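Office hours follow-up: a student asked to see two folded examples consecutively, so here they are.
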Amino acid sequence: MVNIFFYLALINDEDDKCKFEVIYYNYKASMFNIANAILHDEYLAEDAVHQSFIKIINNLHKINDIYSNKTRSYIVIIIRNTAIDIYRSRKRDNIVSFDDLIKEPADENTLPDDFIIQKETAERIKREINKMNTNYSDAMLLRYVHGYSNEEISKMLNTSNANVRYRLHKGKKMLASFLEEEADELSEF
């Protein structure tokens, strides 16, 4: 999840920074739970929370009492609508999540042993991506697991397209190195 300092850097007024900080710590867990209940994907839920916090920052002037039912309802509506928008765009784009790929064989002719090997390999790759520096893992997951374009990733990570391409290139090199090590270890048996 994005660090609070990222959001605070987007806010100029000190009172608004304090207001947002209280909102962030009081609502981020429930926002994540709502998004995850809709999307059934932790990474997409994190994206929904991030997008929702950006919307909240842009509308901080509408929030007076942070602890009121009105504010709580406002935040729930924002996260719910954001998660539904992500769900609809994924459904429209027909993107299959990485987790779905490792649940069932893509080919009915795949032998059970082959399926187990494919599943274990996919899980190992996912673990290796998660071990990477967040600069690379975030870009890799957004691009190859969630299907975002380089331009969308550059906006989400607040960096240039060239930097996103570099991170993806470097991340792929790290994965290739991992796969070579795996192949070497398997060839020793």
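And the second, which I mentioned at the end of office hours:
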Amino acid sequence: MEDYYWDIINKTKMGGYLTRKERELIDSFIEDNIITTCLDVACGSGRFSIPISQHGINVVAIDYDFVPLRKLKAKNGSEASVQICRGDANMLPFKKSSFDCIVSIEAFDYLDAKNYLKQCNELLKINGYLIFTSANNNSYKKFFHQILYKQKTFYRYNFHDIVFILEKVGFKVEKCTGYNWIPFKRNSNSILIGFFEFLEKILLLGHFSTISPWVFFVAKKIEEPDEKC
């Protein structure tokens, strides 16, 4: 079976840290809320779809890339039962008010923020939750990213931009957690990653969402989106 880039790079020490942190935040949310149906947008090969389903939640996993979906299909049944769908996150093919929760990890920055958040609102039931991550324009990593990478989609929005759009389309921000302060790229296996992860924890850097390199958002749908927005 064809190799999948993200499966490979997430096995690095830095990739492991990111997955661990995101899993921890998702698990914490699930423990505090009653969720029966969840949509995992840009699911990849099931890095989060499978663990979420193991909580007894009915998960629909969608991605545009055939390669990770084949990987997820191979795991399905042995590790979890996930409904797999191929589709575009910019045009999610589901009925309105279909889900209690939508999860979108490390995908938001590739999408049109307003259009995507409005779509999510429409697909969620009232009081449903949107869980997603975003790179923060107002952080130190933004400057290094602009210099080192040709891809400029990340770090387009700052924390306040995203909160404003969320509220505009009918969400209320319930929780924000900052992370990814560690000064290494995702493919790094530096022995210092554990040390910086420890620093991030003891210095409580997760509380500094407005300047954190990446932010984990939990937003609750409180009203239908305004057709004018």
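Two things to take away from it. Strands lie at 37-41, 58-63, 82-86, 99-104, 124-135, 171-179, 214-221. The two ends are 44 Å apart (CA to CA).
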